[in-house]
Amino acid sequence: MPWAPIVPSGPIKNGDAVARQEGTLNLTFTVTSSDSLNLQGSFPNNHSYNQEHKAALLTSIPGAGIRVTVARWSYDGQVYGVSGGGFISGSGATLARIPVTTPRVPRIVRIALIFEIVVINAAAYKGGTLGSLDGMTSIGIYFNSDPEGGDCNLRTIVYPAVNLPGGPPPVIPPPPAPTCTFSTATLNQSVGLNPVSVSRVAYDHSPREAGMVGEKPFSISATQCDKDAKFRIYFTDNSNQGNTTQTLGQNPASPSVNQVGIRLYFDGQSTPMTFGPAPTDASSGLNYVELSAGNIEGASITAPFTAQYVMKAGVSNSQLTAGRVQAEATVTIVYP
């Protein structure tokens, strides 16, 4: 069975498994007298062992290790559990005690194993290709006689090698990009500007202060942001998605469609936002606002904007027609 990557559904945490494979090992043994045996296992001595997450460290994937678990074992038709979680350790901990009722008869123990790549240091973990497991080709799984087992003097019965899972090197998934939550209310809102006389509408390319009469603030809010989450906010003109100016056009049916538009400012900036086609990724798109949650898990972020009336290029106040102004923009959120 090949390695199966496990795609994280949220932020990576220490102890998360990011790849898994299962296998079965058949061990045959014969003892000289009635006794019970301890099933034990250990990693090679040259591999550092993380006790908290029961894994041998992997230098090929920083921040990760390999964890091997004995899930269950069967003997003489009976299926048994294991003690201590069944983890193969760095010290050969006892995993199970196997009774031997008929000595000198070969017996087969079937051991179900689970191999996992586990995150040990989430800050250092970036994913990668599993490769050769840092040269680890086997794990010792063996039997020792029970020290309380009566007249059985055998201490080590057999040292079979458990070949680590083969197949093509799996690509271990990287941590998911940190994200935020945006409510429908924040992404689908109507901003009603205040009424203004035609004589007070700002000229095209006039300073921000010229359009303050009638302006209306609004905001786009993000909540439940993951630590280090960053996002960009873009605006697209719904009446003309190819519009790359700083003026949002009106709906075509508006009587003043060719006279007045809307311009948007972010926070205290003096330059209006530039509209443009909706970006497909962080490398496309025009003017945008980028915000970050920083080093805070669960942060909330508010992006403040202001909408103003503005005349279209080449239009003067004397040409304006009083009436309702309607314009629509699409907001696109992109995680860079």
Explain what the structure shows.
The chain is mostly beta strands and 336 residues long. The protein folds into 2 domains: 4-172, Immunoglobulin-like (Sandwich), CATH 2.60.40.1090; 184-334, Fimbrial-type adhesion domain (Immunoglobulin-like). It contains 1 helix and 19 strands. It has one helix spanning 184-187; strands at 4-5, 17-29, 35-42, 49-50, 55-58, 64-75, 78-80, 94-100, 107-119, 128-129, 138-145, 161-163, 171-172, 216-225, 230-237, 260-266, 289-292, 299-311, 329-334. Strands 1, 2, 4, 5, 6, 7 and 9 form a 7-stranded antiparallel sheet that branches. The relative contact order is 0.16.
In short:
The chain has 336 residues and is mostly beta strands. The chain is built from one helix and 19 strands.
Count of alpha/pi helices: 1
**What would you call the shape?**
rod-shaped
Terminus-to-terminus distance: 36 Å
- Please identify the top-level CATH class of the largest domain: Mainly Beta
Number of strands: 19
